[in-house]
Specification:
The protein is of the alpha+beta class and about 110 residues long. It has one domain: Gcn5-related N-acetyltransferase (GNAT) (Aminopeptidase), CATH 3.40.630. The chain contains 3 helices and 6 strands; from the N terminus they run E-E-E-H-E-H-E-E-H. The chain has helices spanning about 40-55, 70-80, 105-110, and strands spanning about 1-5, 10-15, 25-30, 60-65, 80-95, 95-105. A 6-stranded mixed beta sheet has the order 1-2-3-4-6-5. The longest helix is centred in the middle third of the chain and has 14 residues, at about 40-55. It is globular and about 35 Å long.
Length: about 110
């Protein structure tokens, strides 16, 4: 959970094992529209990445973004994630299966 002043819930950052050993999927959402674009997701994801790569077994982080969600794509790129392909029909959005962009960050790249 991403909290602001006085414990107000602003969003969520998640971590889960991915399909390959040593890879973990990161997800994030900023729930409060008035704080979007103010670094809330960046701070949460960066903190989670620091924790993740402090683990010996973590080799890479994977994240998915809707191709039209420019803010999410920009955030991932700013944190060092690289485009790694497309996940066809990855999530249902408004009743339709949608392809999502796949991003990957390795331990080596995160440390640079």
């Amino acid at each position: 959970m991403i909290c602001g002043t006085r414990g107000r819930r602003l969003g969520l950052v998640t971590l889960a094992p991915a399909t390959k050993p040593g890879e973990y999927e990161i997800g994030f959402v900023v729930a409060e529209p008035e704080v979007r674009g103010r670094g809330v997701a960046r701070a949460g994801v960066r903190a989670l990445l620091d924790e993740l790569f402090a683990r010996d077994d973590a080799r890479a982080a994977v994240a998915y973004a809707h191709p039209e969600n420019r803010a999410s794509v920009a955030l991932l790129e700013a944190l060092g994630f690289e485009a790694a392909g497309v996940a066809p029909a990855h999530r249902m959005v408004r009743g339709h299966w949608v392809d999502f962009c796949v991003f990957r960050l390795t331990r080596k790249r995160q440390g640079s």
